[in-house]
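Hi support team,

I'm filing this because I wasn't sure whether my run with pyridoxal-5'-phosphate finished correctly. The job status page said complete, but I'd like someone to confirm that the output block is well-formed before I use it downstream. Pasting the exact inputs I used:
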Amino acid sequence: MDLRSDPRFKGIEPFEKKVWLSSPTMHGEEQKWVDEAIQTNWVSTVGANINEVEKAIAEYIGVKHAVALSAGTAALHLATRLAGEKLYGQARPDEGTLAGRRVFCSDMTFDATLNPVAYEDGEAVFIDTERDTWNMDPKALEKAFETYPDVKLIVLAHLYGTPGKMEEIKAVADAHGAIIIEDAAESFGAKYKLGGKWVETGALGDYNCISFNGNKIITGSAGGMFLTDSLEDANKVRKWSTQSREDAPWYQHEEIGYNYRMSNIIAGIVRGQVPYLEEHIAQKKAIYERYKAGLADLPVKMNPFDAEKSVPNFWLSCITINEDAMAPFVRGEQDQLWKTEPGKSSPGEILAAIAAFNAEGRPVWKPMHMQPIYRTHAFITAEGNGRGRSNAYIAGSGADVGADIFRRGLCLPSDNKMTPAQQDIIIDIIHRCFE
Ligand SMILES: Cc1ncc(COP(=O)(O)O)c(C=O)c1O
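And here is everything the job wrote out:
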């Protein structure tokens, strides 16, 4: 049924221009730096824009070195490779550095966080999510070390711009001598209080990454960065990202290389965006707060954060529907069905209603342990093994927090160009879903 003709939505007109989940917001300065690159002929993977953004972002995040790369995924790949080489030694060119090794990974994240573990021939073990910030559960992480005490690498993300429980996670990692790759792709500009001191996400791990993908808090259309305090690590990543050339008059190679360096044109766009990071965060925060107030009378909860220990960048505003207000809703692998019930709704229905009026929401990122590609991989919850927990002869089964948030949750239109009037209409549409 076309929800526009559903009597519950009578009187609502579709948005003339689509309201996006999170789209690029240009300010004009970007053009200046792109033009300068072209006029000075630095249309390459070297140039002033690259140098300037590396400097500005290292300074903002509070790390000594930033390496500009073609994508957040490239940064994550080289961070993962670097960690693998540090832990297990240099690999043959046809073999990943994590061959035969397990790596503990965030479960509820975009797959780019942990696909590099597979690029490096390692095996991701997924760690369940906690309910306070929707990030890696330190209790599940501790359980994972009970089962796999030899693991030395943890890859974690800060979902939707909300910092995870880094104090607890770092304590677990330290106790087991493991190192951390921090994926701050979604959380650039978010802060966390570590040991009583505010630290930017992107400076909390041993190897850290951010993204300038078109949907991120600031963008270069694409691009990413590797962040570190170690000059040696920064130099290694820079070398690998430009095909691993040795110091010789000809192309000489002792290590496998990649073409992962950021273009000076992309860097020009990022350079024009950097001054607007704080403004974008303030806009996203206002959107989050408007949803929170506007939806307060409904049986839903906003994506949570720890207000004492973190300042999110509020990249995406999300909700979960309370269990007792969930209308019937089932998902297959690629399709879904929902039913309307008075006083209840479902992510399927709300997303369809939002889409019918020309706005973009999205389901919460489907947890990795539920993805067909990773279904054979281990999954650890706060109670231990997350696979095969139910018993045909015994009632009750353990919690799978990620699956639950995925089932009841959705991301709302969070574009920083959305006007308050447009947001009020979206809030109205959501109310009508519960009629
Ligand atoms: C959590 C997370 N990690 C990594 C990435 C990958 O970044 P990129 O698109 O720049 O490769 C994204 C988004 O794109 C992301 O949301």
